[in-house]
Write a structure and sequence with these properties.
With about 450 residues, the chain is an alpha/beta fold. About 40% of the residues lie in helices and about 15% in strands. The strands form three sheets. A six-stranded parallel sheet has the order 3-2-1-4-5-6, with helices on both faces. It has a six-stranded parallel sheet with strand order 11-10-9-12-13-14, sandwiched between helices. Helix 1 packs across helix 3 and helix 9 packs parallel to helix 12. The chain binds nicotinamide-adenine-dinucleotide and uridine-5'-diphosphate-glucuronic acid.
Length: about 450
């Protein structure tokens, strides 16, 4: 059990908010301050409508907000009183200078760390929770321990493995918690302090202690392996569409092999999310820096396959629409990068919609949670786009339905009724392989589903 402490988290995003909420729930004697420079984001965390949608999060926040969980704009006094500081700021792909388009942009991490050095007391434990390149903790140590004034800090690596949409259940019951620490007495002591927070609800044997470098690299490798499985099954989906094999049947068949397992082999229009692409690009960049060209090319292929999958999905829509979607009403079902989140970062829907807009289609976009972010993603090019929460309005008179997110409701829509109200011939393009393709073909649809041969009338 951790002794009562004051914890500050820098970054009130998809990781900082849920992670601290669950930690605070399970450590009622400690005080958790989730901070950000973005005052609007903090105001939203303190309001009835939280800035992120995540099942189960509202209930926890409502229960402990202003008891031992606080959302505040970052200020020096909070840092001065902190015993532990979590760094949960963004680490996007660099869009400028050396490593542009590949390396992680660590400017937010460095600014956060310099703030910590300036305002925190000596002995504060710095926990690197953002996903960072291997050796970042070493750089952080160099920065914080090299300043005049003689303060000393310990830096731990504690990468986060939660997935959006299931963040609370992932945090409540993690497969593992990873803590990387310096191999010194002080490093081990800091790791034990952090471990005590987790063992308030996580079994001790699930908390893995490693050296800092292994911890940092494990995070990139975990995301690379997961994305690689999606690209592998997506490559096979293309082959299935040329044959009479069905990718869903293949996933089921290979997933029964206990060495392969059933997870992360669902074919799709492509993986999205803020991290898979960014983290693999970062891995590729590190490999290139180390002169490991073949290794870099191997992982780059995971991203190339994902881009190919999105491109060929759009190409098929256009080809089946008699080579033109200009002026046609197309209903987009789903914009989030996966269900149960409002996050649209790197969502395949962005690419698909942008391409269809270029081809002058009239898009009606439906998503139960992500329309706000969709509007931001398509700002400036969306004069022909209608955003709606009404499925009937989205689908009425449409030439085609395009499923881009596997929201549960989309599998169970009344497609016979929708078909009646659509232009004929009516088409459905299922980028998530969630509908019963045969049944829809029987209703009268032309069906193009990822991973099965297109069914044309
Ligand atoms: P996010 O963009 O949602 O949140 C980051 C927040 O940090 C922003 O609100 C920003 O204003 C704030 N910030 C930036 N600099 C700051 C500073 N100096 N002080 C205080 N706040 C500051 O990002 P996210 O999705 O929460 O991701 C954060 C990190 O966690 C990334 O490295 C990401 O790779 C990693 N990660 C994300 C997920 C996920 O599901 N989103 C899962 C695991 C790991
Ligand atoms: C992913 C990892 O699963 C988390 O462990 C990690 O912490 C996180 O990235 C991160 O570092 O940010 P997340 O991106 O939130 O989590 O969601 P996933 O469930 O991994 O899905 C990613 C994308 O892959 C989604 O677009 C999803 O639709 C797609 N996917 C996933 C498939 O197309 N097929 C699958 O079988 C699984």
């Amino acid at each position: 059990m951790a002794s009562a402490k004051k914890i500050v988290c820098l970054g009130a995003g998809y990781v900082g908010g849920p992670t601290m909420a669950v930690m605070a729930l399970n450590n009622p004697d400690s005080q958790f301050y989730v901070t950000d420079q973005n005052a609007a984001r903090i105001a939203a965390w303190n309001s009835a409508k939280l800035p992120i949608f995540e099942p189960g999060l509202d209930a926890i926040v409502e229960k402990i907000r202003d008891k031992n969980l606080f959302f505040r704009v970052i200020n020096p006094t909070l840092l001065a009183e902190a015993d532990v500081v979590f760094v949960c700021v963004g680490t996007p792909t660099k869009d400028y200078g050396e490593g542009k388009g590949m390396a992680a942009d660590l400017q937010y991490t460095e600014l956060a760390v310099r703030d910590i050095e300036k305002h925190c007391k000596s002995g504060t434990i710095i926990v690197e929770k953002s996903t960072v390149p291997v050796k970042t903790a070493e750089a952080i140590l160099q920065i914080v321990n090299a300043q005049a004034g003689g303060k000393r800090f310990e830096v731990l690596s504690n990468p986060e493995f939660l997935a959006e949409g299931t963040a609370i259940q992932d945090l409540m019951n993690p497969d593992r918690v990873l803590i990387g620490h310096a191999e010194t007495n002080a490093g081990v002591a800091a790791a034990e302090t952090l471990k005590a927070f987790y063992t308030a609800w996580v079994k001790s044997e699930r908390v893995l202690l490693t050296n800092v470098w292994s911890s940092e690299l494990s995070k990139l490798v975990a995301n690379a392996f997961l994305a690689q499985r999606v690209s592998s099954i997506n490559s096979i989906s293309a082959l299935c569409e040329k044959t009479n094999a069905s990718v869903r049947e293949i996933s089921r068949a290979i997933g029964h092999d206990s060495r392969i397992g059933p997870k992360f082999i669902e074919a799709s229009v492509g993986f999205g999310g803020s991290c898979f692409k960014k983290d693999i690009l970062n891995l590729v960049y590190i490999c290139r820096q180390q002169g490991l060209t073949e290794v870099a090319d191997y992982w780059q292929a995971v991203i190339d396959m994902n881009d190919y999958q999105m491109r060929r999905f759009v190409a098929q829509i256009i080809e089946m629409q008699f080579n033109s979607v200009a002026g046609k009403k197309i209903a987009i079902l789903g914009f989030a990068f996966k269900p149960d989140t409002n996050d649209t970062r790197e969502s395949p829907a962005i690419y698909v919609c942008k391409r269809l807009i270029e081809e002058k289609a009239q898009l009606f976009i439906h998503d139960p949670q992500a329309l706000g972010n969709a509007k931001k993603d398509l700002a400036g090019i969306d004069s022909g786009v209608t955003y709606t929460l009404d499925i009937d309005a989205a689908t009425e008179g449409a030439h085609a339905l395009v499923i881009l997110t596997q929201w549960k409701d989309y599998a169970a829509l009344d497609y016979a009724k929708i078909f009646q109200r659509m232009q004929k011939p009516a088409f459905i393009f299922d980028g998530r392989a969630i509908v019963d393709a045969e049944a829809l073909h029987t209703i009268g649809f032309n069906v193009a589903q990822i991973g099965v041969r297109a069914m044309r009338n």
